């Protein structure tokens, strides 16, 4: 296997607080890799560094062999490195289907020039985008609420919609930050199933930060444990759960 994300010796401090300490991780192509660790271990900071949302102090990040250190998030988006975002306030007034249709970058219809000079092409592209959005919304199990305003969807349905938005572009790697938080068990089952299908059927690689250990256990292999900004241990969920250092630092030593 080859690493689609390769983080090498990254350091990051906020003021005097060193949050990421000589941290190196590899996310193998086609894997669903979990990233866990105690509160404050640096998981979100590392995510933000990989996603281009936060500059690092030193070290390097590679995407499929190409260095992407400190590249902006929109450039990484075009390269297929995506993270899910909460539905922005202004998008909550659009329907679920419209939210999906807003995603594709570089639509000819977005440019006045394109709309004026190439109306037939614009209409054709819009029809294609709509068709894709209809397929995606069925895929994520939200076909029955496609005309609901996104702001009226339940927390779990919004998470499914966020996942659906990654399918509107050619994603290669998706970073999921605590996607299970606040989602009921039934919808969580749908989310897990959809993540597995995206991985199996479309070849998505996932890097997943999650506090929900059931979800990590069902979904992720390998699991990376981060503590104080560096990798404590990496392995299968069974290996992690039986590692004395992890039990001590993360799960809490049994009395
Ligand atoms: N923008 C910031 N400015 C200053 N300190 C920050 C900033 N972002 C994070 N930190 C600090 O960095 C440390 C790591 O935070 P981070 O959010 O990366 O941890 P985490 O592992 O994701 O934690 P949690 O599981 O609680 O979400 C914390 O001590 C946090 O207070």
Write structural notes for this entry.
With 255 residues, the protein is of the alpha/beta class. The chain has two domains: 1-80 and 170-255, Rossmann fold (3-Layer(aba) Sandwich), CATH 3.40.50; 87-169, no CATH class. It is built from ten helices and ten strands. The strands form two sheets. The chain has a six-stranded mixed beta sheet, with helices on both faces. The longest helix is centred in the middle third of the chain and has 21 residues, at 119-139. It starts with a strand and ends with a helix. The model is unreliable at 106-112 (pLDDT under 50). It binds adenosine-5'-triphosphate. Adenosine-5'-triphosphate binds next to strand 2 and helix 1. GO terms for molecular function: ATP binding; ATP hydrolysis activity. It holds the Pfam family ABC_tran. InterPro entries: AAA+_ATPase, ABC_AA/LPS_Transport, ABC_transporter-like_ATP-bd, ABC_transporter-like_CS, BCA_ABC_TP_C, P-loop_NTPase. This is ABC transporter ATP-binding protein. It comes from Bisbaumannia pacifica.
Would you kindly provide a brief summary of this structure?
This protein has 255 residues and is an alpha/beta fold. Helix content is 38%, strand content 24%.
Shape descriptor reads globular
- Structural class estimated from helices and strands: alpha/beta
Amino-to-carboxy terminus distance: 41 Å
State the helical fraction: 25-40%
The CATH class label of the largest domain is Alpha Beta
Number of discrete domains: 2
Number of helical runs? 10
* Major sheet: 6 strands, mixed
Estimate the strand proportion: 15-25%
Average predicted local confidence, pLDDT: 87
The helix/strand order is EEEHEEHEHHHHEHEHEEHH
CATH fold label of the largest domain = Rossmann fold
Question: How many β-strand runs?
Answer: 10
